[in-house]
Write a structure and sequence with these properties.
The protein has about 300 residues and is of the alpha+beta class. It folds into three domains: about 5-90, Transcription Elongation Factor S-II, Chain A; about 125-230, no CATH class; about 245-299, N-terminal domain of TfIIb (Single Sheet). It contains twelve helices and four strands, in the order ααααααααααααββββ. It has a four-stranded antiparallel sheet, with no helix packed on it. The longest helix is centred in the N-terminal third of the chain and has 34 residues, at about 60-90. The radius of gyration is 26 Å and the shape is flat.
Length: about 300
């Protein structure tokens, strides 16, 4: 089993990796060598670091991260199943005598976990019913829809997920004049269901179930706001590239050695200037390193 120190080192390298080849090498190492436990994953936050890569742009990185998460989940499940079997065996032997030196087995306090190979979690598979949760059947059904979206790949207990599903539905209701018959209420429930069930955005589900994202905040978020940090960063990168490619594309870039590239530290650059803001603001300078292709801008 990997020590916490070794695992932390690999996790830090994975988070600091700047190329896909580095990420793939680290993921392969983790898949091949790291024998994990639930406590090790929690302590090193390895599961969170690898889980974020399931929505990476590189398909190989995505495939490896998904495989690794599945392997780790299965290992945790097997360990918990072993503890449950041990507990059942001890119970069958009868109570421990008062003078015995053998300590009584402790019941682990853990959330309900579904394995990656089992059926997808839903209110039906979890045995959770919301009939009568509110005086309104429409609201009860919407709470169930929120539950199904939030529990998709969650490891939280059914009670925790149900609590958050009810809170989200109540927040949407409050944001739509308290009427479940309004078009706004039904439209918003559908929008949230689609975004929460997006397999490429586990960050949103995890944030709601963990309580990091409040229900009343989620109820009013735009689709752009609900995107994961990685998706937002990728969008910003694409927008930046488009800006470089479109602004003053017809103008000739001038060569200069007045700027130093922050990546390769060379001073062979091309630059152009454009008025991207109001007329009383300074012009924006767009610089491209001719050595490594790195681009940046400043005003």
């Amino acid at each position: 089993m990997a020590t916490p120190g070794e695992m932390r080192t690999l996790v830090k390298k994975l988070q600091a990796a700047t190329t896909d080849s580095e990420r793939i090498d680290i993921l392969e190492t983790l898949k091949k060598d790291a024998v994990v436990s639930e406590s090790l994953l929690r302590e090193t936050k390895a599961g969170l670091a690898v889980g974020k890569l399931r929505q990476h742009a590189n398909p190989t990185v995505v495939k490896l991260s998904k495989e690794l998460v599945g392997i780790w989940k299965a290992a945790v499940d097997r360990a918990k199943a072993g503890r449950s079997d041990s507990k059942a065996s001890e119970s069958a032997k009868g109570p421990v005598r008062k003078n015995s030196t053998t300590p009584a087995p402790q019941t682990p306090i853990t959330p309900t976990i579904k394995t990656s190979s089992g059926p997808a979690r839903t209110a039906k598979t979890d045995g959770v019913k919301f009939n009568g949760a509110t005086p309104d059947k429409t609201r009860d059904k919407c709470i169930e829809l929120m539950y199904d979206a939030l529990v998709l790949d969650s490891t939280a207990s059914s009670d925790v997920v149900a609590e958050h599903a009810k809170a989200v539905e109540a927040a949407v209701l409050a944001a739509n004049d308290g009427s479940s018959y309004s078009a706004g209420y039904k439209t918003r429930i559908r929008q949230l269901m689609v975004n929460l069930k997006d397999k490429a955005n586990p960050w949103l589900r995890e944030s709601v179930v963990s309580g990091k994202l409040a229900a009343d905040r989620l109820a009013t978020m735009s689709t752009e706001d609900m995107a994961s940090p990685e998706m937002k960063a990728e969008k910003a990168r694409i927008q930046g590239e488009n800006l470089f490619n479109s602004l003053a594309a017809h103008e000739q870039e001038a060569e200069t050695d007045a700027f130093t590239c922050g990546r390769c530290k060379q001073s062979k650059c091309r630059y152009r200037q454009a008025q991207t803001r109001s007329a009383d603001e300074p012009m924006t300078t767009f610089v491209t390193c001719t050595n490594c292709g790195h681009r940046w801008k400043f005003s």
